[in-house]
Structure formats: structure tokens, C-alpha cells
Amino acid sequence: QKLVAAHKGKVVVVDIWTTTCGTCVEEFPKFAALQKQFPKDKIALISLNCDYDGIKDKPPEFYRADVTKFLRKQNATFENVMLNIAFIDFLDQVDLSSTPAVLVYRPNGKLAKRFDNDKAEKLEDEFTIKDVKQQIAKLLKK
Hints:
alpha/beta, 38% helix
């Protein structure tokens, strides 16, 4: 929430993902492409990596090199943060069953739309980056 608040006046888009989620990895380049599709003074992208799963012998730093390598490959020049709490605990905190998820915030910092697949019963029900783009465009028109 602090990162979202730091971008007051912009539409903020937070991608919640893991490197072990096939859909997350497949869709990430489309998320990263949003930085070129919308004006930088109107939108802020934040990627929230959730690879840390709370294993004592594998602290958050254990995952940093692989996550950083992936982000560089995607030209993800926006803010990237990694969880420092166990993924399962984070999911409980935000009432999410799994990744991927994308949160889109209004310029005033209020959540406008949460995209997740918690209620998807079939592949056609899952959200896409196209859905996210439409939400961003809608908010930018207001």
C-alpha cells in the first residue's frame, strides 16, 4: 500500500506473480509492455514477486538472482518488489487463492479493480492483460 500511495495521481497496476506459475511467466511480457503503451506520467507499474515460500533454509534473498534475471530478460524497468513473508501467509492476508493476480488502483490510491482467477471455472473465465489494459484505459479517460 505504501508503494501505491507513493504514486498518487497515477493509475497504479500491481502484478502479483511467481516464477513457478506458468500463466504468470507467460503473461509477464504483456504486463511489461504496458509501460510502453501508456504515458509514464499517468501510470505506474509494480511487479510483486511471490517466490519466497517461507522455507527457513531459503530466505527471500535465495530467490533474488533468478527473479532479477527473469525481470531483466523482460526489460521490466518499473518497480519490482519481492515478498519477505511466506507466500501462503501473503495469500491469506490479501484473500487470494493463487497467482496470477493484478490490482489496478485509481489515481487517488483506491482499488478500482482486482483481477484474479479465484472464481474462474474454465480457461475462458480467466482474466487476461487485455482486460487489465481496458481497465487502465477506462480510468485514464476519467
